[in-house]
Structure formats: C-alpha cells, structure tokens
Design brief:
The chain has helices at 28-42, 67-77, 154-175, 190-202, 224-242, 253-261, 288-295, 316-326, 342-352, 368-372, 394-400, 414-422, 433-443, 448-465, 468-499, 510-513, 542-560; strands at residues 14-19, 46-52, 91-98, 122-130, 139-144, 181-185, 206-209, 247-250, 270-272, 302-307, 331-336, 357-360, 377-381, 405-408, 425-428, 520-522, 525-527, 531-532, 535-536. It is of the alpha/beta class and 561 residues long. The strands form four sheets. Strands 3-4-5-2-1-6-7-8-9 form a nine-stranded mixed sheet, sandwiched between helices. Residues 1-10, 66-134 and 495-541 have low confidence and may be disordered.
Length: 561
C-alpha cells in the first residue's frame, strides 16, 4: 500500500511593516513593531520595515541614527558612512546620503531612492540590517528622511504625519511594487489616509493598527473656536480612511465600539488586540533595596512611583499637588521619565517647596523592572476623557512588576475595567486632587502583605491578557493570513496559466479566491472588495455599471442587425 502526499510549496510572501516609531526609540509601538517583524521573519516572510529616523522621546539623539547628528557628522568629516551597534549588540546601522538640492532639506525635496549617491550632504536613506549571526536575512529596516516633530506641537505634528505618509508611498512605488500585504502603525490622520489611498489604488491588502482615535483625541488640543469647524471634516477623513482598509486592529473594546457606531464599519472588520509588553523582562523582579541604592532614593520611606511620559494628558501636575496636600513625612513621590511638561512639573515642585518629590531621568525602557521595584504603589493618572479610547502602555508594565495601582481615569474606560477585574488597585475620578490626596494617605496605612497580594493578582491578570507571546501571535496571524492567502492565489494562478487550464492573464486567480458573493475570505473577516484582474479593488460605481450595460446592449443590437 502506497501513500502519495501532495505538497504545495508556496513562495516567500512579502510584507511591508510601516511603523512611525521603531527601536532604538523606547516607545511601546516601536517595540511591538520590532516584535512583529521578527515574528514574521521567523515564520518565513520577507519583511521590510519603513520608519522615520528615531527622535522619540523629545530631546533624545541616537548616535549613528539621528538625522540631525548624522548631518553634522557628515558635514564635519565629509564621510558618507557611519556604523554603530545597538545597545544589545545585535544590529548594525548603515547610512547612505545624497547632496542637498537647491538648499532644501532632504525631507522637503523630491527623492529618488533607487539611485542614492554617496557624498557629503543631507541624510536621505538609512538601512538598519541584522548582523549575519542573528538569522534574519529576510528582514531589513529602512529609515525614511521624513520630517520629524518630537515636540508635541500641533502644526509640526500635522506636517510630520503628511511627510511620513508621502515618503512611505514614494518608497513603496519605487521599491515594493510586488508586496503582498502592508501592515501600518502610523501617524494619524494624514499619513493613514495617504497610505490607505495608495494601497487601495494598487490593490494591496492593508492592515491598519490604530493606537488612538482621531480627531476625538485632537479636540482637546485645539482652540474652542476651531473644534466645531474641524471636527466634522476630520471625522469624515477618518471614516473614509478606515473604509479603504482590509482590516482594522484596535487596542480596546471602547475603540472598537467607536469604529462600529461612529464610523459605520462591519463588526468582522475590526479586531481587538491589546498592546503587549515583553513579560520575559519581568521574569526575575529586582530587589527594592538595589533600585533605591542605584537611583539615590531613601529606602525607608513609603514610595509612590510614576513611570512614563510626562506629557499634557498624563496629569502629573495633579499627582504633585495631591502628594503635597498629604503632608506625609515618611512617604515620597518618585517621578521617572521625560516629556514636554517635565520642566513645568519641576518648576511646580520648586514653587511649592515639597522635599518629598524626586525626579529620575533619563529612563531606559529596559530598566523599567528595576525602577518599578522601588515602588510600594504605582500611579496611573490621566486627564478627563484621555483614557476612553486607549490603554496606557504603563498598565501592563505595572502589573508585571506585581505592584498595586492607584489610577485616576474615567470610570467607563478599559483601564478602569482592567484594574477592577484584576482587583489590583484603586480607581478614582480624573483631576480630583482632593480624592487622590485622601487615598494616598489611606494607602500608607495598609499592611505590606495586603499590598503584595494585590500586586500578585495584577501580575497574574497581566500575564493572561497582555503578554508578548499572546499578542504578537494574534497580530502575526492576522498579517500572515492575509499575506499567505494573496500569495497562494498568485501562485495557483501562475500554475494554472502555465498548464493552460486557467484562462488568460490574471483572471485565472479570480475563481479560486472569490466567494459566491464576489468577496474574498480573509483571516477572521471578509475582505470588503471583490477581486478584479487579480487585484483587490473597490467595485465599479452604479452609474458606471449602468453605462457599461447600455453600451453592451447597443453594441449587441448593432451586431445582430
């Protein structure tokens, strides 16, 4: 008895990952982009990551990768090459430059990525390649010379979004014309719209990962007289953008509800995948004594800790005011991080004269377990409305460190729900200094074993819902499902054309990939557009169909006559 096995060997499918931030930037979205790229490369995909030069957090300059620093190095030395290993010693940077054209910076002029010239001038392209012993020959990272705005200002951030979207579309057009699927975690709103339009017109499946909902998150930063004028226009732009996309990935259930009700998307088109944190970094929790000695923090005092970005929506000023109002002698507030509002917070502490508040910076994201080990309780403040459409990245990190959490967030937010479900902390009204001050005083009287039990519950909950192993696998399945499906359809179409059984041209793929209703199945959802000429394109308009039917009818009548 003989058994015949039929094996279908598919070519390596090609993925473009568009990330607006990428390591060495210590941002959660950057780490997630690298995790996804490595996961797909391990599974056999050919991955190209497109990202800007690293500039986050504000004020950071990365030697060998920062555009401003490289520009000065190139002008001073007249050299076109600069190589620097990353902090883990696994990556190598290679910089290619082209001269200035007409005095314009590289981010504003027309670029031809296909023919980089090596000479002194502005940086136009940088490639971050894996060392040979890492085992990812099918993974490369391209730094695009788009305009960057690390400081949180409205107009520069808008131009940053437009510039990055323009550079991404140009690079895709020149280099990645045969890409199978695009995953984008990029700036709203203009960058998202430009990439969605390009992929839709080229028939490339696009998966859009949304970290924050715009323009809702933008309204608080606009003057009151501009909100009503711009809200409807920007919502219309966002609604148009998400309807051009094959799959939407959001990070919370509240975000999903907004896109289902406010943007009118089908339920199967929106997938919820919470942001993850690498739980392996918290496998061995450091001793509190070691952290206090390293950062010069008194060990004997009860410690409240805030770790993260000190930005306009963080509400760190309320933490300072609340702690000062407690008048606690044997307690301290440690604020670790940087951001656009840090100087304001430092001035506030000096003005009120509170000696129990200490600032720690700079902060390396890899040291988060050590820094958080100093805390008895971790703090998570947000402005009103800021937590309704997102989940702070510090929440999983706090949970993995087995620390109780004192949060001032909206009661209806996913953050509040997670803390209450895990029974690992307390939730209060945002910007309520009086409540927060009373709760801080109350917490200092709770026995240490009770606090440890609450932290252990949070760690168990975090490992179940926010682990890297689970999150990157789920997101990888979405990308691989769409990429393999499109790649498989092209391979089968090529075989059928070679054997002479599939008709002419690329129409042979249509019968195999389309459902009865003209749509194509995808991983966990239905692709909303039918395939035409082997490409995912929006259907013809009713007027165009009616016109084509009339032309066909007249032509047929003429032929019969």
């Amino acid at each position: 008895m003989s058994i015949v096995l039929s094996v279908s060997i598919l070519p390596m499918f090609k993925v473009a990952i568009i990330n607006c931030v990428y390591p060495p930037e210590p941002v959660v979205s950057a780490q997630m982009g690298r995790d996804l790229a490595e996961h797909l490369a391990q599974n056999g995909a050919r991955v190209t990551v497109l990202c800007p030069f690293p500039t986050r957090p504000f004020g950071a300059v990365y030697q060998g990768t920062g555009e401003r620093e490289q520009e000065s190095e190139i002008r001073g030395q007249g050299s076109a090459d600069s190589k620097q290993g990353s902090e883990d010693g696994r990556l190598r940077y290679e910089v290619e430059t082209t001269p200035s054209q007409g005095g314009q910076p590289a981010s504003l002029r027309s670029l031809n990525y296909a023919e980089p010239r090596r000479s002194a001038g502005f940086v136009t392209k940088s490639k971050l390649r894996r060392a040979k012993d890492v085992g990812y020959p099918n993974l490369q990272v391209v730094h695009l010379p788009s305009f960057t705005a690390p400081e949180s200002r409205l107009l520069p951030r808008m131009w940053e979004s437009f510039s990055f979207g323009w550079h991404v579309c140009r690079y895709l057009k020149q280099h990645l014309t045969d890409i199978d699927v695009v995953y984008a975690n990029t700036w709203p709103l203009f960058s998202q719209a430009m990439i969605a339009r390009y992929c839709n017109r080229r028939g490339i499946p696009l998966i859009l990962h949304i970290q924050d909902i715009y323009p809702e998150s933008l309204m608080g930063k606009l003057p009151s007289f501009l909100r009503s004028m711009t809200a409807s226009l920007l919502i219309t732009l966002d609604r148009w953008t998400v309807r051009q996309v094959m799959q939407i990935v959001v990070i919370s259930e509240n975000m999903r509800k907004i896109y289902l009700t406010g943007r009118g998307l089908a339920p199967e088109k929106v997938v919820v995948i919470p942001n993850w944190t690498d739980e392996n970094r918290f496998a061995c929790l450091p001793e509190r004594k070691d952290a206090c000695v390293q950062y010069g923090i008194p060990e004997e005092n009860f410690t409240f800790l805030y770790l993260g970005n000190i930005g306009p929506v963080a509400g760190v000023e309320e933490l300072i005011k609340a702690f000062h109002a407690t008048r606690l002698k044997q307690a301290q507030l440690v604020i670790a991080g940087d951001g656009s509002v840090k100087e304001t917070c430092v001035d506030l502490v000096e003005r009120i004269g509170c000696n129990g508040i200490k600032f720690v910076s700079p902060v390396n994201v890899e040291n988060a377990p050590l820094i958080q080990s100093m805390a008895h309780v971790c703090l998570l403040p947000l402005r009103k409305g800021a937590g309704m459409s997102s989940i702070p990245s510090k929440l999983p990190a706090y949970m993995f460190s087995a620390k109780p959490i004192l949060a001032t967030v909206d009661a209806e937010s996913d953050t509040a729900r997670f803390i209450m479900e895990a029974q690992c902390g307390w939730v209060g009204e945002p910007e309520n200094v009086e409540w927060l001050s009373k709760k801080m005083t109350e917490i200092t009287t709770i026995p240490a074993d009770v606090l440890s039990e609450m932290g252990a519950k949070g760690r168990e909950y975090g490992l179940k819902h926010f682990s890297k192993a689970q999150g990157v696998r789920r997101l990888g399945d979405v990308v691989e499902g769409m990429g393999r499906q499109r790649d498989r359809g092209q391979a089968e179409g090529a075989v059928s054309r070679k054997q002479g059984t599939g008709g002419k041209g690329r129409r042979a793929d249509i019968g195999r990939l389309c459902c009865e209703d003209g749509t194509t199945p995808s991983q966990g959802s239905r692709i909303p557009y039918p395939m035409r000429e082997g490409r995912f394109l929006p259907p013809r308009s009713p007027r165009k169909k009616e016109f084509e039917q009339k032309v066909a009818k007249v032509t047929k009548a003429g032929n019969l006559g």
